[in-house]
Amino acid sequence: MTTTRPLAGLHVVECASFVAGPTGGLTLVQLGADVIRVDPIGGGSDHLRWPVAPGGESYYWASLNKGKRSVAVDMRSREGQELVLALATASGTGRGILIDNVVGRPWLAHERLAARRPDLIHVRVQGHPDGRPAVDYTVNAEAGVPSITGGEDHAGPVNHVLPAWDLIAGLSVATGVLAALQQRARTGEGAFVELALSDVALAGVANLGWLSEAADRGGERPRHGNHVYGSFGVDFACRGGSRVMVVALTEGQWRALQSATGTVEVFQALEKALRADLRDETERYRLRETIAAILRPWFAARDLDEVGKELDAARVLWGRYRGMADLVADHRAGAHRVLADLTLPRGGSAVTARSPLRFDGDHGPAGECAELGRDTEAVLAEVLGLTAAEIGGLHDRRVIGPPADPNTERKAR
Amino acid sequence: MTTTRPLAGLHVVECASFVAGPTGGLTLVQLGADVIRVDPIGGGSDHLRWPVAPGGESYYWASLNKGKRSVAVDMRSREGQELVLALATASGTGRGILIDNVVGRPWLAHERLAARRPDLIHVRVQGHPDGRPAVDYTVNAEAGVPSITGGEDHAGPVNHVLPAWDLIAGLSVATGVLAALQQRARTGEGAFVELALSDVALAGVANLGWLSEAADRGGERPRHGNHVYGSFGVDFACRGGSRVMVVALTEGQWRALQSATGTVEVFQALEKALRADLRDETERYRLRETIAAILRPWFAARDLDEVGKELDAARVLWGRYRGMADLVADHRAGAHRVLADLTLPRGGSAVTARSPLRFDGDHGPAGECAELGRDTEAVLAEVLGLTAAEIGGLHDRRVIGPPADPNTERKAR
After folding, report:
1. Helix, coil or strand: residue A99
2. Distance from C-alpha of B97 to C-alpha of A7, rounded to nearest angstrom
3. Which residue positions does the secretion signal occupy (chains A, B) (predicted)?
């Protein structure tokens, strides 16, 4: 078993904002890469994104950018742009890796970067593939998901709240960087890898077969509330009001559910009466309302503890609806190894996560959250070999930030 | 620019089902790896998963497993298990990579595999980290998302229909494989990488800051329908009924929205009257209903074409709500390079996707869909060096499938 993390030795520059690009960098940093995040002085437009701590710091920014080194640069200035270009294309085997979501800025055009380091790996997140902007909320609307979400009798779209396409794009960024490294190791060549959020969404719905089905139907499939599409799965209320999600995708799961709820004979009789074979998930889907209605009293007659015990004993596939506050309480009780506490730069603490990927049993560290620009001087000295005098000059010209307080400034020179 | 795909030379064995594991393999195969998918003879429990084509083939299975080579093996037999172990641990630089979601089966325990090939890369998808089963629908309930999804006055959970955690897990699998390869190239060591779907969901909500916020509130944040949380974004109906999603996360986007809708002075006056500063997204979130009410008549007075033209001219961030059937029509008109047509093994066609990652402008091929077990003989001959006689024996003993028809069978021997 290695004691270092899998991506030790890699150095990635991240010049991105909001969820997708930063999730890519977070994924890599949690696997052991050194990720240098470059922000405008004072922070980008995601720096105070909700949710925020009582003191005003963004839980969102802190969690998505923990573990990274923070460099703050005035990217509107020519000197600041030159610093970003130099960091992204610095020489070294594990260097020359850039993640950005900067579209339509000539100073960070891929050609300019590749001219400085031809084997650069450059992964760029876009809204649409033609460069038009888009965010999770707009591409989700365009991908058709809100029109099949929500209750059967709901009119109008139901947006998801989870920025799912952003998160999928973030993991795709990590995959793209690592695939390009594989290629660079084999051929010596770099790669310009573009990833449009809208393509991530289109690929998602296409790969699930949803577009093919709409083509057959010539329209949208019906909404089905909390039912699982094409099989049996739905939520039930227990005595006392707690709710559970119960799923029977396979024949074994369906047998388990009947057995736990004592309904084997009921469904046998029903199958006979309706000439249906409920071992077939298509039939379970067709008769989902009937099945749910038959099962509902069993759940209503038991509290959550009883339901859980009996379902587990019969190996039913189920989950309890939890609130986020419940998850925090579980975490405080030590329940989830993937979760961790994070100290915010100005004090206060957040609940954050380690990598869900356990390498040889180890989630790795969650990472610390840097105050914006904390590592600017150290990174410029280490990666670009700038002298203290040169760094002082950049400070004086306000090319790098944050404006150091006089004491720190004196020490740094 | 290379002419081969980035992951050329890698050989991955996939022994997984449903969405997460297969999405991992799909991601790798679309980037150029050779992925050998192993299924039970006749198909696993995901083989006929909805949606299905009129002829009964699964659009879902075909799309998630295209591009892969298909091997069908009776994994209940000792001989079949031995074939899977041998394929997963075959020697060669680009081999020794296994993706599975097989939990609690001693024959495929990691230790057994690692004993045969110590530098094996083995990525295993689980439900819960302790091995208890879970699927997207149950972990989503457990992660608290359904309780903050849907309309303000909705009671009870609103499940998402997108298996978002599965897709994120799938990309995490691809990332895990490639990170382990990076480590193997550096240290010569293999890795056992476990990934629990429930951890993927917990990490997702934690990294967005949602758990921290629930800890502060001591409970759940309110549902907010189609509004974007913590900023301004909501859907509007245009004249004729088409709907659009409009978002103003940044100050620039907010200025653009006011400018497009001719409401600059209205909001100036409102800010004065309410002593609010709507340049601050927190304030826009607080006053979201008021802002939406002021903007609504502008949308209602214009049809979609007019709305789109005027929003684009002012550079507003927006998207149109589309149906999946609309996306298919766009695809037929050549609109989306990421989408592709897929021929089903028994005829008929599906709409599927290429990789959203464009390496040097290229999405790569979508991949063909193999009939179940098509490549069994070729793979056993190529990877394990089995002779035609040995393969014939496996057929006779029904260890491999599908039962070849007599003509093919004669030729194969």
Report:
1. strand
2. 17
3. none
Cβ-based contacts of B194 with chain A (< 8 Å): 357-358, 361
At residue B219, what is the residue type?
A: G
Question: Considering only CA atoms, which of B142, B45, B166 is closest in space to residue A231?
Answer: B45
Find the closest chain A residue to B161 by CA distance: A149
Is A230 within 8 Å of B27 when comparing Cβ atoms? no
Q: Label residue A365 exposed, middle or buried (CB < 10 Å: 0-12, 13-18, 19+).
A: middle
What sign has the CA pseudo-torsion A316, A317, A323, A324?
A: positive
List, for residues B294-309, the tens digit of each pLDDT value.
999 999 999 999 999 9
Cα distance between residue B169 and residue B22, in whole Å: 10
Out of B49, B193, B211, the one facing A324 most closely (by C-beta) is B211
The 10 Å Cβ neighbour count of residue A2 is 18
Closest Cα partner for B372 from B89, B66, B35?
Answer: B66
In chain B, what is the greatest distance between 2 CA atoms, to the nearest angstrom? 88
pLDDT at A3: 63
* Cβ contacts of A208 on chain B, cutoff 8 Å: 19, 60, 63-64, 163
Q: What is the pTM of this model?
A: 0.96
Residue A143 is predicted with a pLDDT of: 97
pLDDT at residue A286 in the model: 97
Q: How many CB atoms lie within 10 A of CB A216?
A: 18
Task: For the domain covering B11-205+359-412, report its CATH number.
Answer: 3.40.50.10540
Q: Look up A166 and say whether it is catalytic.
A: yes
Residue with tokens 């091995």: B131
Each residue's pLDDT tens digit, A80-125: 999 999 999 999 999 999 999 999 999 999 999 999 999 999 999 9
pLDDT in tens, B192-209: 999 999 999 999 999 999
Q: Phi and psi at residue A292, in whole multiples of 5°?
A: -60, -40
Nearest of B302, B16, B334 to residue B176 by alpha carbon: B16
Compute the distance between CA of residue B388 and CA of residue B393 in angstroms, rounded to an integer: 9
ipTM > 0.85 (yes/no): yes
pLDDT-above-90 percentage for chain B: 94
pLDDT above 90: residue A154: no
| Overall residue count recorded for chain B in this entry | 413
What integer pLDDT is reported at residue A152 of this predicted model? 87
Q: What percent of chain A has pLDDT over 70?
A: 96
Catalytic hit among A166, A199, A277, A305: A166
Most B CBs within 10 A among A145, A357, A369, hence the mutation to make, goes to A357
> How close is the nearest chain B Cα to the Cα of A72, in Å?
19
Give the SS3 label for residue B44: coil
Q: Say which of B6, B51, B191 has its CB closest to residue A213.
A: B51
Question: How do residues A258-293 score in pLDDT, each as one tens digit?
Answer: 999 999 999 999 999 999 999 999 999 999 999 999
A144 closest CB neighbour out of B139, B147, B327: B327
A81 in Cβ contact with A104 (< 8 Å): no
> For residue range B239-287, what is the model confidence (pLDDT) as tens digits?
999 999 999 999 999 999 999 999 999 999 999 999 999 999 999 999 9
Nearest-CB residue to A351 (from B49, B140, B212) = B212
Q: Which member of B136, B166, B280, B326 is catalytic?
A: B166
The domain locations on chain A are 11-205+359-412, 243-320
> For residue A388, how many other CB atoms are within 10 A of its CB?
11
Q: Residue A403: what pLDDT?
A: 56
Using alpha carbons, list the distances in angstroms from residue A196 to A104, A129, A132, B242: 14, 5, 10, 24
Amino acid in position B66:
K
Residue A54 DSSP label: T
Amino acid letter for position A15 = C
Chain A contacts of B321, Cβ < 8 Å?
141-142, 144, 146-147, 157
